[in-house]
Design the sequence.
């Protein structure tokens, strides 16, 4: 129970601080709601159950006709914010049940979803209310059409990823207050999401001028939680991550994310430590492998690691850079949990040259890149 208002911990999702949207959400007086459901549970005839449940459905649909006091949030008792459509779906399921036993089973389940929080070891999602997380992706094809530009997020850094990528992973693979590490921080997207979602974050970036951009971006994001964000200017292929963590009194991290250069597709600098300046694909993979080695020990066993990367085209040949990179991680003992295909946003430059690229593809016998990969790994060995 939060002590500054009377919204209970059922009000669990990351959007809980947003104002209630009365078209999609209902705030129920939880005690009253449970009391009414418990009374219905005592009934012996299914018709009576249906009749009483219909009364609740009417109240949810027409809050002004709340004769049962279900939405009376000013009287005693906790309140819970619930998704209106899902609540109506659950109530209709009870009303449509063929037998009283089935109806009671659904009532018990509904009561449980309003009172018990069931989470796993690696995130804060309440599995008793899993239907409400309709924005959490669970399929391997991610078509994300618009970049989240809210808060400190912006598309200013060429080569940054869209914030929805770390957002999805932080919510699924970390709990509030845990530590996240991004070894190729760039403009700070991961740490902005960490700050927003109440996760501690460490980011490593080679280029001081990019660190400056990242720091500016991260500090302009509103601080809603008491979390730490640390940015380190260093070469991730050489850095002693364990020592860096020890200096900061951090034992380990609970999620790793890496969005390295896609070899030389975008040259981030002239610095020879920059992976985008690797002389060959072998050298790129060797350097990337070093970063995977350097970070292996600091990730807790049983936790996850995401790599975001694309392929490249060179001298008439498609180079499966992403799969080569995936293999470097597999060689180091991680297991693969998912391969996600994510659509590629069209850059403005490419958009203007769309016709030209189409012509080139037809002549050259190739396909234009419209996707990149996200590989998700799990550390299963110490
Ligand atoms: C694809 S970008 C990451 C973008 C980031 N996800 C964002 O949203 O801004 C890759 C970053 O890795 C950095 N980088 C390249 N080589 C590095 C190295 N050896 N150690 C640390 N960072 C490196 C580059 O400077 C670049 O900013």
Sequence:
């Amino acid at each position: 129970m939060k002590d500054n208002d009377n919204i209970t911990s059922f009000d669990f999702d990351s959007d809980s601080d947003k104002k209630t949207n009365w078209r999609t959400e209902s705030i129920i007086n939880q005690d009253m709601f449970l009391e009414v459901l418990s009374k219905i549970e005592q009934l012996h005839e299914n018709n009576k159950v249906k009749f009483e449940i219909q009364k609740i459905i009417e109240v949810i649909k027409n809050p002004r006709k709340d004769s049962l006091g279900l939405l009376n949030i000013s009287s005693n008792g906790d309140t819970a914010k619930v998704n209106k459509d899902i609540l109506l779906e659950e109530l209709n399921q009870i009303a449509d049940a063929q037998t009283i036993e089935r109806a009671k089973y659904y009532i018990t389940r509904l009561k449980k979803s309003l009172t018990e929080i069931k989470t796993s070891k690696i995130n804060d999602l309440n599995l008793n209310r899993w239907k409400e997380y309709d924005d959490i992706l669970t399929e391997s094809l991610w078509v994300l059409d618009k970049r989240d530009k809210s808060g400190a997020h912006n598309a200013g850094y060429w080569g940054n990823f869209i914030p929805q990528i770390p957002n999805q992973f932080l919510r699924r693979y970390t709990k509030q207050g845990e530590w996240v590490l991004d070894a190729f921080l760039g403009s700070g997207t991961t740490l902005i999401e960490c700050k927003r979602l109440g996760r501690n974050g460490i980011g490593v970036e080679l280029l001081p001028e990019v660190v400056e951009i990242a720091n500016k971006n991260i500090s302009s994001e509103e601080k809603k939680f008491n979390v730490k964000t640390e940015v380190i200017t260093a070469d991730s292929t050489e850095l002693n991550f364990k020592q860096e963590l020890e200096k900061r009194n951090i034992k380990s991290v609970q999620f790793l994310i890496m969005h390295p250069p896609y070899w030389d597709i975008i040259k981030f600098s002239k610095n020879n430590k920059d992976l985008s300046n690797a002389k060959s694909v072998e050298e790129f993979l060797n350097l990337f492998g070093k970063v995977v080695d350097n970070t292996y020990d600091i990730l807790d066993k049983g936790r996850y690691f995401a790599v975001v990367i694309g392929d490249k085209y060179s001298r008439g040949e498609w180079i499966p850079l992403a799969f080569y990179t995936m293999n470097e991680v597999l060689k180091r003992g991680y297991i693969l949990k998912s391969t996600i295909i994510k659509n590629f946003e069209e850059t403005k430059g490419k958009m203007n040259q769309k016709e030209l690229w189409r012509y080139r593809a037809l002549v050259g016998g190739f396909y234009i890149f419209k996707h990149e990969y996200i590989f998700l790994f799990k550390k299963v060995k110490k």
